[in-house]
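Hey,

Quick one before I head out. I ran the complex with flavin-adenine dinucleotide overnight. Inputs first:
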Amino acid sequence: MRTQVVIIGAGPAGLLLGQLLHKHGVANVILERQTADHVLGRVRAGVIERVTMDLLDEAGVGARMHADGLVHEGVQICVDGKRHRLSFKDLTGKTVTVYGQTEITKDLMDGRAAVGAATVYSAADVILQDFSGDNPRVSYRAGGKTHEIGCDFIAGCDGFHGISRKSIPASAISTFERVYPIGWLGVLSDTPPVSEELIYVRHPRGFALCSMRTPTRSRYYLQCSLAEEIESWPDERFWEELKPRLDDEARDRLVTGPSIEKSIAPLRSFVAEPMRFGRLFLAGDASHIVPPTGAKGLNLAASDVRYLSRALIEHYQERSDAGIDHYSARALARVWKAERFSWWMTMTLHRISDNPFDHRLQLAELDYLFGSKAAATAFAENYVGLPY
Ligand code: FAD
Ligand code: PHB
C-alpha cells in the first residue's frame, strides 16, 4: 500500500492534520494504537484559543463547537480567598471558548468518517523506517497480520509516549525538560459550575482550578503530590479538600455530586528540537509538553498542525519546500513562548517550594498582575493565544 502522508496517532493533532490535508487533496492514512472509544474516553483539555477554532472551522468541523462552546471574556484568579478578574475582552479584544477535547476529537472523527479517509485503530507495533531517505515506510500489526505503507512523509502525532520521537537517532535531537514534583487530580461531575468563568486558585493548601464543560457539567482540579493514588481519593475527600481552597462565594455556590471521571496528571515541561528529521515531522505532544496551568497543550498541537499542513500542501500544490524547511523553526518559536507562559502560571499559582521567599515572590507577581495594566495585558495576550 502507498499514500502521500502517514500520520501516527489519532489524537487532536493527527486527526486535525488528516482533515486539513484531505481537504486539499493530500492523501493520508492515520495509524492509532488504541481503539476509537479509548481515544474518546480521555478527558483532557477544555479551553481553546480563537486561532484553534479558526483551524477547526477550516477543517470543516466547527459547527458543534460554535453551537455548544461557551465563550469566555475573562478569567478569575483567587489569591488566598480573594478573587480578582482579568478581562481578555477589555485587554485584548479577544475571547477563548470552553469546549472539551473529547468533543473536538469526536467532531474530527465524524468529519473523517464522512469523507471516507482511512484510519486504522488498534494498530500495534508501529515501526517508522527509512525516513532519513527518500522512501519512508511504516509497518504495523493489525488483525493478526503485519502491514506496510510506503509514503512521501511521516507525521509523528503520537503524543509524549509515542514511537515517532523515539525513532529519531539520539544524536540528532536535543531535549529540554523540567519535571515538577506535583500533579493535578481532576474530577468531572454533572453538577453546575461554581462560576460562569474559570477560577484559578492560589492557596497555602495548594493550587485548585474550577473549570467546566457545559452549564451542567463541572471540571475541578486539585494540586496533589505525585505519590497520590486515585483510590485514596473517594469523591467526598476530593470535595472536602476543594472547599477550604475556595473563596466564600465559590464555597457557598459549590454543588458537589458523584464524579463521572477522576484522574491524576503529572506536571511537566518538555521540548524536543528540531521538530523535523528528514521526512519525519513531529507535532503536538510528540514534540513538546506544557503543564496544563496555561491551557496551552491542545492549542499548541493545533498551531503545529497549522504550520505543518500548510507546508505539506505547499509541497504538493506549488512544488515548494520552503514551508517544510521552515516548519521546525516556525513552530518552535510559538512553542517556547507557550512553554514560558505555562511555566510562569505553574510557578506563580502552585505551592511547590517551602521557602517563604518563594511565596512572597508569588504574591508580588500576582499583586503586580492585578495592579498593572501592562502586566494584565501581557497575561491576557498569552492566555487568549499569541498570533501566528
Ligand atoms: P495525544 O492527544 O496524546 O494523542 C496522541 C495519540 O497517539 C493517542 O491517541 C495515542 O494513543 C496515539 N499513539 C501513541 N503511541 C502510538 C503508537 N506507537 N502508535 C500509534 N499511535 C500511538 N491540555 C490542556 O490544555 N488542558 C488540560 O487540562 C490537559 N489535561 C491533560 C491531561 C493528561 C492526562 C494529558 C496526558 C494531557 C493533558 N493536556 C491538557 C494536554 C492536551 O490534552 C494535549 O496537549 C493534547 O492531547 C495533545 O494532542 P496530541 O494529538 O499531540 O497528542
Ligand atoms: C479544563 O477545563 O480541563 C482546563 C481548563 C484550564 C486549564 C486546564 C484545564 O488551564
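The pocket of flavin-adenine dinucleotide (ligand 1) is lined by residues 8-14, 31-34, 39, 44-45, 101, 123, 126, 157-159, 161-163, 265, 284-285, 292, 295-298, 301 (CB under 6 Å).

Talk tomorrow,
K.
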